[in-house]
Amino acid sequence: MKLDAKKRETLGKKTKYIRREGGIPAVVFGKGIEPTNITLNYNEFDKTYKKAGKTNLINISLGEEKVKVLVKDVQYDPVSGNISHASFYRPDLTVKTEAQVPVEIVGEEVNELIKSGTALALQLLQEITVEALPEDIPHSFTIDVSNMNELGQGVTIGQLEYDREKVSIPALDPEELVVRIDEIIIKEEEPEEATVSEEEAIAGLEATSEKPEEEEGSEEDK
């Protein structure tokens, strides 16, 4: 994946003009190098970021200079929801690095238990931290649940598919579950019983006992 970029001198609040012209202000940084402020085309970056995420290397062309980077951070405008800024990390390609690899669940739409409304695929981990050379980082861990037709069935860290010679998952137990087929339990709500407080009960009794008796009229009144 490639992106064309231009070095920029515009900083601070003036970057709003870059966004108005269909660009994104960004920065490239790394260990032992000076940060470089750049400008990217909005649509090109948006399309590339959706494919690469934060785990795939992107080739950025700065004129004759070409650098391999990882997306480190993406900021969004709180009002429009559009991307407002991006940060790229330029790693040492010869040194292993840590990365957060997303977990993707597929096959839910054809799983018989899920289709029937009996169960759901409970995703216990959204991301998994791995160690690998930048060029060996997996794009994602994809788990197919289409054939998991038993309640309680799941996939552990040790059952994930990836190149174990190039990638390691040092911080998690191999037996830790990543996804599990769980039963859906629907609890029926019991109707609330009307309750009367002790004070209300006493007040009701007093009101009943204090009703005046009807006075009998005299013969003259009849």
Which descriptors apply to this entry?
Ribosomal Protein L25, Chain P; 2 domains; extended; RNA Polymerase Alpha Subunit, Chain A, domain 2; mainly beta; 6-stranded mixed beta barrel; 3-stranded mixed β-sheet
CATH superfamily of the largest domain: Ribosomal Protein L25, Chain P
Profile the largest sheet.
Answer: 6 strands, mixed, barrel
Q: How many independent structural domains?
A: 2
Q: Biggest sheet: strands side by side, in what order?
A: 1-3-2-6-5-4
Radius of gyration: 33 Å
- In N-to-C order, the SSE pattern is EHEEHEEEEHEEEEEH
Percent helix range: 10-25%
Structural classification: mainly beta
Mean pLDDT: 87
The CATH first-level class of the largest domain comes to: Mainly Beta
Strand content: 35-45%
Shape: extended
**β-strand number:** 12
The CATH topology of the largest domain: Ribosomal Protein L25, Chain P
- In angstroms, what separates the terminal alpha carbons? 108 Å
Named at the architecture level, the CATH assignment of the largest domain is Beta Barrel
> Given the structure, what is the number of helices?
4
Q: Runs with pLDDT <50, length 5+?
A: 217-222
